[in-house]
Amino acid sequence: MDQSMQQLIQQMTQAAPAHKPLVEFKAGRMDWDGRMVKPDRKKGLIRVDKDQHGMTTFSFVDADTHNQIESFYVFPDEAKFEKVHQTKDRVYLLEMRETKQRYFYWMQVSLSLSYRDVCV
Q: Which string of DSSP letters, residue by residue, matches 39-102?
């Protein structure tokens, strides 16, 4: 392998510089059992960010390792993130309108007023 190829591979595998996500907060996942949602005890973070191509991603990451557990590309007219009003707890739903896939999350801390505007 020539030196220019090695340099290219090295550049591609180097970690990208850390940047601050658009939104990040402590959260947990919930599993739907067909009748109710039940919390998954794994601690995590919800992170909304832009990828290198400018596309918006919604990710649930492990709170300790920061490894992605699940990640989705989200588009304004194709996904919605909203509070589940059937409970007084901080349970939120990410729903993909086209596929009807539903993902439930619970907030570990109260959201500030500015986040409440985003998470209707």
A: E----EEEEEEE-TTS-EEEEEEETTT--EEEEEE--TTTEEEEE-TT-SS-EEEEEETTT--E
The answer to whether 94 and 72 have CB atoms below 8 angstroms apart is: yes
Instruction: Return the bridge partners of 23, or none.
Output: 48
Tell me the whole-structure pTM to 2 decimals.
0.72
Q: What does the alpha-carbon distance between residue 13 and residue 6 come to, in Å, rounded to a whole number?
A: 11
State the CB neighbour count (10 A cutoff) for residue 61.
19
- Taking 70 as the pLDDT cut, the residues of the chain under it are 1-18, 111-120
Distance in angstroms (rounded) separating the CA atoms of residues 72 and 82: 16
Cα(25)–Cα(33) distance, integer angstroms = 25
Element (H, E) at 117: helix 113-118
Q: Write the DSSP symbol of residue 15.
A: P
- CATH topology classification for 21-118: PH-domain like (2.30.29)
